[in-house]
Every structure is written in C-alpha cells, then in structure tokens.
Design brief:
Shape: globular
CATH topology of one domain: Jelly Rolls
Number of strands: 7
Radius of gyration: 22 Å
Largest sheet: 7 strands, antiparallel
Number of helices: 4
Strand order of the largest sheet: 1-2-3-7-6-5-4
Distance between the termini: 51 Å
Strand content: 25-35%
Length: 222
C-alpha cells in the first residue's frame, strides 16, 4: 500500500505548536533580606508585623525542574498509540528547558495518522499550578474529570473537519503539586477521511497521561 501524502491544510494544522510562553513563571532568586539588628533594647513583641517587612518563610516546591519528556512513556506505549513512530520521540525546543519540556511523536502508517505530545511544566508553587490548571480546563469545556490522575485530572475530546478530512483530538491535563502534565493525542484516516472514535482517542490520551504522571512522580524531587 502506498503512503498517501498529507493534505496541505491538515499538514499546516498538525505542525508542532509553539511552546507556551514563560511570562510570569520565572523562579524567584535570592533569599529574603535579613532583618537589621537593633542598636538598643529590642522592642516588645506586639503580635503583628508590618506589611512591608520581608517574609522569612520560604516557598516549598515539590518539583524544581521538568523531567525528560521523551523518556516518560514506555516504548510499547508509543508503538501502540503512534504506530510507525520512532519510540525515542523528538523534543521540541523550549524557552526554558528547566521549567517546560515537550516531546512529540507522529507517524503516518498506510493511511492512518497519529500525533502525540507530552509536556511537563513546573511552576513556582502549588497555588500557581492550581490556577493554571483551572484556567486551562475552563477554556476546554465539554470534558470530564479523570479520577486518580495526580492531584487533579481532566480530559476532553473534540472533532474537527478541514477540507472534508476529520481529525479527532484528545487533551488531558493533570496537576501534581506545583507541576502540570499536558498530553495531546489526535488521529485521522486519510483513506476514509474519518477520524478515530472518541473512546480510542480519549483512552489513548489518558494512558499516556498516567505514564507521564508516574514518570514525574518517580523522578527527582526538589
């Protein structure tokens, strides 16, 4: 069976997306300034502190660096979800590889096309990760919770049609402490112009997300 070339419109649609901007996520640097020593007898404690006084409480972060995304999935998982793809994957350049890393796998086998992305993002705190998680899931309505996936998990599947060619895409978001895991999985059949079923794409995306979360939790923690 000969390989069918990708339609130009779909090729453009499935090109690697730009990695998320790093604005607002830079890690704070340097310890808080030490309070100045008193020259005379210390004043009595009043139980309150000036709002301008420096905080001596350090923010505890479970994760300080994103793990290697291309090593997050087992070779058999990649072979199952993206038939014909090189299991090593290809890491997409990032503006800050210590905090954001993404690996991509894609292949056209016969007429069947599959694309899989796994991303890790490390934020300054659990609160920031929770806020980002809520914003993203809020923008991807129509999905549902994934029980047992990190501290919080969510999946959504959408169908698009371009030049009469269907593509079905599943996205899974997971929060683990101060880190986010994002998995994108889509597919098309260029012979029938139909897309894989919702169940196939959703289960595939969740399978990859579970392995990615396990890789994050099993890696080095700060």
């Amino acid at each position: 069976m000969r390989d069918l070339p990708l339609p130009l419109a779909l090729t453009a649609r499935l090109s690697p997306v730009a990695v998320l901007a790093a604005a607002g996520w830079a890690l704070s640097s340097g310890p808080p300034a030490a309070p100045q020593a008193a020259e005379h007898k210390p004043a009595a404690q009043t139980g309150t502190r000036s709002a301008s006084a420096p905080s001596t409480e350090a923010v505890s972060r479970t994760y300080t660096a994103a793990p290697a995304p291309c090593a997050a999935l087992a070779a058999k998982t990649v072979a199952s979800l993206v038939p014909g793809a090189k299991t090593a994957g290809k890491e997409i350049p990032s503006t800050d590889s210590r905090l954001r890393r993404t690996c991509s796998w894609n292949a056209l086998k016969g007429y069947d096309y599959r694309w899989l992305d796994v991303s890790f993002e490390v934020l300054d705190s659990d609160e920031e990760a929770q806020k980002s998680y809520q914003e993203r899931t809020g923008k991807n309505s129509g999905g549902g919770a994934v029980p047992g996936l990190g501290d919080a998990g969510y999946s959504v599947v959408n169908l698009t049609t371009e030049d009469k060619q269907q593509t079905r895409e599943g996205v899974v978001f997971a929060r683990v402490s101060n880190a986010l895991v994002v998995v994108t999985y889509n597919g098309s059949d260029f012979e029938t112009k139909k897309a894989p079923g919702t169940d196939e794409i959703n289960k595939g995306a969740i399978r990859a997300a579970k392995e990615a979360v396990a890789a994050l939790e099993g890696g080095r923690k700060g």
